[in-house]
Amino acid sequence: MSQPAIDEDDPSYYPPSFVVQPVSGTHKATIICLHGRGDNGKHFGQLFLLAMGISTDDTGTKPSIYDSETPLFTALQSDLRDTKFVFPTASRRPVKAFKNIPQHQWFDILSIKDQEREVEVQYEGLRETTLNVHGLLRESIAEVGADNVALWGLSQGCASALIATLLWEGKPFKACVGMCGWLPLRKGMSDHTAAAKADMEDDDLRTYKGSEANMALDSQQSTPLQTARNYLTDILNLPPGSDASMSNPLEASLLSIPIFLGHGLLDDKVPITLHAEAATLLGRLGFSIEWKQYMNLGHWYSQSMLADIASFTRKQTK
Fold first, then answer.
1. Scanning 138, 204, 248, 284, which has its CA 20 to 30 A from the CA of 81?
2. DSSP labels, 102-147
3. For position 172, which CATH number holds?
4. Is 61 exposed, middle or buried, given 0-12, 13-18 or 19+ CB atoms closer than 10 A?
5. Does the residue 238 lie in any domain?
6. Which of 78, 86, 80, 72 is nearest to 31 (CA)?
7. pLDDT tens-digit series, residues 144-194
């Protein structure tokens, strides 16, 4: 019986990932790396690995290290020799800003610089992409353990990786790395956490310090992270998880995932202010953030950024 034809323009269809096996032949770690809008896993993955001194064929089964005297290459190759790379490809979604012509994108957005403009167009893609990325994380963790799995992303891939991390409920993975990206739905999360904080501070019951009523109220108050997660779960129409009654151990587990954010000062596609706003809110939610800005860099990565990422991930030993 023949299989039904695949509709590659179906937004729910995510093409197979481009997977590059470890150079050493020994699989000890996995990096899942999400491309930017309009790209695909294979094209992005091959260019990205070349920047780190690793070349590969179209199958990803024969990676090799090419010679370089640059210290950065040596450091990265040593770190990544036993790492499998997974480069997913986003589904093809109609781009509302361009007459609904479909292209590979993790979610639709009308304007990066004015993200509140018809913000609802982002919801479906963010929901489906989050579920897809969570599936990839679970598969990778089953193979090598959570401590050996990292989630990276560039541009819209960074944006998607951050949302997927915020909504993750499994074992804490090694790190989340974002390059030249932003935090989607940041204003909504910020507004809701600020309102929740104001409500908590204004509640008259809190004047009865130490009373049973106040202790009961304290136990019901949501932390900033809980509030942000509840907002995302609701707005993206995701299945309810444990976020509504997030236990202290679960929250501590999620917040143990360190986040690196790097951004070029000359980026004309994603303003540097969005990078700073993302770092600020994530820090307020309780995450450990390392963020850096790079001179003379536009909307891309650089040798300096990759060196900082290598140094950052090397420090993350749980």
1. 138
2. EEE-SS--S-STTTTTTGGGGHHHHHHHHHHHHHHHHHHHHHH-GG
3. 3.40.50.1820
4. exposed
5. no
6. 86
7. 999 999 999 999 999 999 999 999 999 999 999 999 999 999 999 999 998
d(C-alpha 80, C-alpha 64), whole Å = 11
Encode pLDDT of 256-291 as tens digits: 999 999 999 999 999 999 999 999 999 999 999 999
* Contact yes or no for 151/173 (Cβ under 8 A): yes
**Measured between alpha carbons, how far is 234 from 69 in angstroms, rounded to an integer?**
51
DSSP run (H or E) holding 153 = strand 149-154
Q: Is residue 308 part of a domain?
A: yes
Residue 61 confidence (pLDDT) = 85
Give the burial class of 53: count Cβ atoms within 10 A of its Cβ; 0-12 exposed, 13-18 middle, 19 or more buried. buried
Mean pLDDT of 200-229: 60
* Phi-psi label, residue 271: left if phi above 0, alpha if psi -120 to 50, beta otherwise: beta
Q: How many domains does the chain have?
A: 1
Residue-number span of the structural domain to which 98 is assigned: 18-185+247-315
| Predicted pLDDT of residue 219 | 41
**pLDDT grade for 8, boundaries at 50, 70 and 90:** confident
Instruction: Specify if 155 maps to a domain.
Output: yes
Question: How far is the C-alpha of 104 from the C-alpha of 163, rounded, in Å?
Answer: 18
Do the domain assignments include residue 191? no
How much is the pLDDT for 44? 98
User: Containing H/E element for 45?
Assistant: helix 41-51
* Residue 120 buriedness (CB in 10 A; 0-12 / 13-18 / 19+): exposed
Total residues belonging to the chain: 318
Read off the pLDDT band of 244 (50, 70, 90). Answer: very low
Q: List, in sequence order, every residue forming a beta bridge with 65; answer none if it has no partner.
A: 54
